[in-house]
Amino acid sequence: MSDFIMVKNLKKHYPSGTFFNRRMIRAVDDVSFKIDKKESFGLVGESGSGKTTLGLCLMRLLEPTSGKIFIEEQDFTLMKGRKLKEFRATRFSIVYQNPLSSLDPSWIVEQTLLEPLTVQRTFSKTEAKSIVQEALADVGLPSYILTRFPHELSGGQAQRVAIARALVNRPEIVILDEPTSALDVSVQAQLLNLLLDLQEKHGLTYLFISHDLNVVGHICDRIAVMYLGKLVELGDTIELFNMPMHPYTQLLVSTISQASVKFFKYKLKGEPPSPLNPPSGCRFHTRCPYATAICSEEEPKMVEVSKGHFVACHNLEFVKSGLIQAKDRAILIE
Amino acid sequence: MLADTLQNIKRRANVWTKPLLKDRIFLVGAIIIGIMIFIAIFAPWISPYPAQGEGETVPNVCPAISPAGVCPPSFQHLFGTEQGGRDLLSRIFFGIRTSILVSFLVVMLAMGIGLAVGLTAGYFGGLVDEALMRITDIFLAIPHILLALNIVAILGPGLVDVFIALGATWWPAFARLARSQAVAIRNRPFVMIAKAIGAPNRHIVFKHILPNSISPLLVQMSIDLGAVVLAEAGLSFIGLGVRPPTADLGQMIFAAIDFITTSWWVALFPGLFLTLLVLGFNMIGDAVRDRFDPRLRRQF
Amino acid sequence: MTHAVPLLEIRDLTVEYITHAGTIKALDRISLKVNRSEFLGIVGESGSGKSTLAYATIGLLPQNSRVTGGSITFDGKDLLKAPPKEITSLRGRRISMVFQDPMTSLNPVFKIEEQICRVIQQHKAVNKKIARDIALEHLAHVELPEANRILELYPFELSGGMQQRVMIAMALSLSPDLVIADEPTSAVDATIQFQILELLSRLRQSQNFSMLFITHNLDIVSQICDRVVVMYAGRVVEEGSSHDVFSDPKHPYTQALMKSIPRPRKSIAESKRLSVIEGSIPDMLFPPKGCKFHPRCPYAFDKCKQEEPELKEVTEGRKIACHLY
After folding, report:
1. Who has the most CB within 10 Å: A52, A304, B296, C240?
2. Chain A within 8 Å of B212 (Cβ-Cβ)?
3. How far is CA C125 from CA B52, C67, C115, C130, in A?
4. Would you tell me which CATH number, out of the four given (3.30.420.40, 3.40.50.300, 3.90.550.10, 2.60.120.200), belongs to the domain C8-94+174-318?
């Protein structure tokens, strides 16, 4: 069975610093994973983790420094020019966090929705307009929205427009970068349901990037956890929340107050390091309570601890036993 | 399609016009300028002596008072006459025509060049940006009077000189504004998305960057109109602008110097109208800037 | 239940905003109390009026606002009737505020030392050295390492979490009685948020202050607030201890809100669909007649469309504004 999306050793490095002090920001550093068709794949991490960069690289809106991306066995990373634009425009779409900056403020909604269809002259005006009407209905917005400007819409409505735009080109893969983070709780719920309905109706594959574990834990089938450009854990959502294996994942899971077991038996040390100067070896070692000598020397490799569940940590046995201890003296909040 | 675009522009314009119309300063300024524009357009029809306005001299208007033809205000000549017996009121009307024509043309030209240079530099960045901005710096450093002098020396005097001199020196400010806007906007998500869906650069610059960059330039434009009027008058005053017999407020004031102690009206009235014109533009400019300058970050 | 005089008592406060499109009633007869050493959470979504409440209390409402009724009594003094000089002297010294985004709340062109010391010296007649010592003390309280070094830095040289700790240190530097926090953790990461909330809980013990914690995040409120007030469209709809309100929400809005929060699923069988509140927040220019929530309420009946429910005490310490009760 071939994988729908296969990412291999993806890297995105930015040069920074002065002529005399060249440094590299390793925003995404050697990341590999796969995504199945029609899956909701979650990507979590905090600021500086590289999750947004990874999302943009997947679409090649940012050029990866190295690595491979295969879409249905085709090497997406090799495509250039016309073929790249066409492939990308027909397969991908992206929805950003803030609709006020992802929609052109001087364009009315209709113009924005027509753009993906008419800019490459793939459709005639009439054909395009009917596709737009359909998309608008899909996201549950009435026709009069077409003549509005973005600032005349509420946050929820504007985000629906952004989603409608992401649908008009009939993509297979939609990258959602914090799509509900700027919205009220009740609006978020409506929008998440909408995303689910659309996924089912159109058979979409989602890459759901967020810092909000509650949302990702609810919507996604599998989750990848990133820290400072590296993938630290990857696995099935329910298993990940039930048995987080990486110390960082444990930390994240324990910040959700509804976590059924509090893993937070240690006090997190220090501040998150800057991506400009990541720690040597395992990037999390400076804040990790299980850190040993090897952690500061060598970067751990991803190891499959159970089917489909991968972790990158040197001290897995140690962590496992810590996990068991935590469960014993569990503070059950349910 | 065209109807739609017009409607959109109208709706976007409404965002500007509605609050402005409530501003008293804007209203006063707009009324003044409205009257001025009316005068400028209809000068040949509303001047009492249109031929004189255009430069015809009339001998022996008031030989008893002034052999040069500089007559005080009277019923036939409401503002009196200037040298050559020309009716001052008509001359002023035609002078306003010159001022407004030049100021609008210069500002439009400056904005056009400024947008072209600035947006290109800002959007493409890199070497293009560097090169264009350094050229802009060079022009920014040239004082318009100096340039005017040189152009007059080459081309001879006239309206065209003024136009070139002022146009060439006024655009850098617009270019800088346009560039900083373009830089700010090119990284916005909606531009990234336009690129992602395969939009060509042309489309992105004209349809996305341009409409979103224009706001501070329009503000600058409204402020500059008054400044250009004054600059033009200044150039004419020192003889570098329009040549007689074309009516020009600055030139009229200059010519009045010889008569200032005896014939107060020759300097006063042109001066008054010039002041009023610049004031009107400034009031509009101030009101627009107070309301809309994105750098001032006002709440609506 | 203590019967001590509350530190802050707001009674029937009504605040309106005048916009070119019309008048908006941001707060409609709001009443609540904050006791000494109590953390009160104010929860609401956009348009609920929670930020307006915070700014009204500290006297920093924008120019186009009007207080058209009610009173804000702080330690016996009516803040709305007090002369501006008094309010200015209260601000910082007895009531202080922590804002949402530390990046924009800290002045980027001044070093941290200057900013904190200025606040201290504004209210206390002390010299620079003593002010610095006080600043160092409070920086240590917020668990910032190398406080000496931090004083010499500019805000942009600190991370978001550190900036927010500095804000908290500033807010506590004069040992105020009441700290108003307006979404103080929205701009920081989850792990930092957790740390800051824990910090605030610890500081509560050592510094002895009350807090008015404004947020849209119910989880945060359940983590550190003793009591919570739920607001909707300018009204208080539910009030009670945070434990009670979250384990047994009574108002239909609170119930629906809690059900619509996504949680990590426990099993594959669990549906991904969230229960939603139908409709959207009312247009505050033309609010609905009667109960402002009735258009979206599954239990609405005739009375709800006519008459606005008042906040009533249903059980000890629990108040609901709903005709069902």
Report:
1. C240
2. yes
3. 77, 34, 16, 10
4. 3.40.50.300
